Amino acid sequence: MEKRCTDSQVKGVSTGTTILAATFDGGVVIGSDSRASIGGEYVSSKTINKVIQVHDRIFCCMAGSLADAQAVTKTAKFHLSFHSVQMETPPLVISAASVLKELCYKNKDELQAGFITAGWDRKKGPQVYVVSLGGMLISQPVTIGGSGSTYIYGYVDAKYKPNMSREECLQFATNALALAMGRDNVSGGVAHLVVITETGVEHVVVPGDKLPKFHDE
Amino acid sequence: MLEETGPEWLSEEVKTGTTIIAIEYNGGVVLGSDSRVSAGASVVNRVMNKLSPLHDKIYCALSGSAADAQTIAEMVNYHLDVHSIEIGEDPQVRSAATLVRNISYKYKEELSAHLIVAGWDRRNKGQVFATLNGLLTRQPFAVGGSGSSYVYGFVDAEYRKGMSKEECQQFVVSTLSLAMNRDGSSGGVAYLVTIDEHSTEEKVILGNDLPTFFDQ
Lengths: 217, 216
What we know:
The structure holds two protein chains of two kinds.
Chain A: H1 7-11, E1 19-24, E2 27-32, E3 36-38, E4 42-45, E5 51-55, E6 58-64, H2 66-87, H3 93-106, E7 113-121, E8 125-131, E9 137-139, E10 142-145, H4 153-159, H5 166-183, E11 191-197, E12 201-206
Antiparallel strand pairs in A: 1-2, 1-10, 2-11, 3-4, 5-6, 6-7, 7-8, 8-9, 11-12
Chain B: H1 8-11, E1 14-16, E2 20-25, E3 28-33, E4 37-39, E5 42-45, E6 51-55, E7 58-65, H2 66-87, H3 93-106, E8 113-121, E9 125-130, E10 137-139, E11 141-144, H4 148-158, H5 165-182, E12 190-196, E13 200-205
Antiparallel strand pairs in B: 1-4, 1-7, 2-3, 2-11, 3-12, 4-5, 6-7, 7-8, 8-9, 9-10, 12-13
Helix pairs in contact in B: 2-3, 4-5
């Protein structure tokens, strides 16, 4: 309808997704929606999991061409496990993000994929890294991505606070995903969330009917 | 990039890439807008008031092409003046919104502007109408302009029915501030208009007085 809704085509690479990651006091939450669509007209999968485990305490979320993202994460997983055997220690989150960055940067002409990497390591604790399309790597306390993220920039800016508790952060992430899925037609399905702390990893799946509802629903 | 094509603002269309918002409360409405007018990547006016009066108690918020939006507002202002003389009393907000809608719909191929119409009348108190692309719909609140994409999530989460006038003003200012932070085409100062039975109050909030968030 509006000229503005060609945002997702202008960005070119966001195949309908909403992904986010946020640090809280003692860990990180990383999450995504579960819809895969073809051209915004057909939902090819309602239950795809876009949160991939690349090591025990390191997860990443992919946005962009799903094929490219899957190929890159598989390669990254292999590199990381080899690296951690060589170092005889679990890899750092920044190592995982760097591996992804190298792949994205060196192959920037062929690939169309961006990543959010989140995890916990002994050196720096909970961290979130963003690897963008061209291969830029930066660290942020909270980050969002995918076509649905446009709609929640305001919400995330307003509601994220550093050093929240685990429950507050989980609620924040669930709300943000629900709001984005409510406005973006190529994001939807269930909300996949993973909470990573020093002690372990917990998967939380919030089905569509249990997502928070807002004023007009 | 090395050619001499002259400054961008000579060749680019002037748009009010914008954030506009209007919200009803019990007894009136609050309208808000940013103040940036851009021509391509240049900001040609950083203090434009995009809240335009259509009548004493009816305002509209402009977005899209600056020329188109201003022209529609002026035409409707004229028609409403004539109409209010004919009926002998203040016009209804719905009448103003219908006039805007009629122009937007009839010339929808040529125009690219979206006006949100809001105001107070005796019959239905505070009302907000969206007139995007030629539809007419009354809503509890409406957002528009390029910056509105970034704050859909925020307004969906924060809006509650039955907010007071002060809460609505705070809601509008926070929303504008968030959108101005993220949208390159929105910025400057925030203009606010509060319309109720007794008065129409215009207010400006300067950039450094706007609310800030965790990363600022």
